[in-house]
Design goal:
Radius of gyration: 12 Å
Shape: globular
Strand order of the largest sheet: 1-8-7-6
Number of helices: 0
Largest sheet: 4 strands, antiparallel
Structural class: mainly beta
């Protein structure tokens, strides 16, 4: 089902990214241990979920698996790139 989907996604702060029938947005923050965390809000097939992941983790949406290939340093700016997701397969 990954046919026609992009090979990668660049997530921007405060911007919804549409992929097929799904939507994804996210922001990054620093957790208690000093790690950069990507918090994703995913809406897929009438189901909404909030997921916290790290660089190298995988998530399922738009009928396929995506790897968090990059999480950028969290900042206080209003807009900007927060992460890159790469489609698996």
């Amino acid at each position: 089902m990954s046919e026609g989907l992009p090979a990668s996604l660049i997530l921007m702060k405060r911007m919804l990214e549409r992929v097929d029938e799904a939507g994804i947005s996210g922001h990054s923050y620093v957790d208690e241990q000093g790690r950069w965390v990507l918090q994703l809000q995913i809406s897929d097939g009438g189901r909404a979920q909030l997921v916290s992941v790290f660089e190298g983790d995988s998530v399922e949406f738009a009928g396929t698996t995506w790897t968090v290939s990059e999480v950028l340093e969290p900042t206080t700016v209003e807009r900007g790139k927060v992460a890159t997701l790469t489609r698996v397969g």
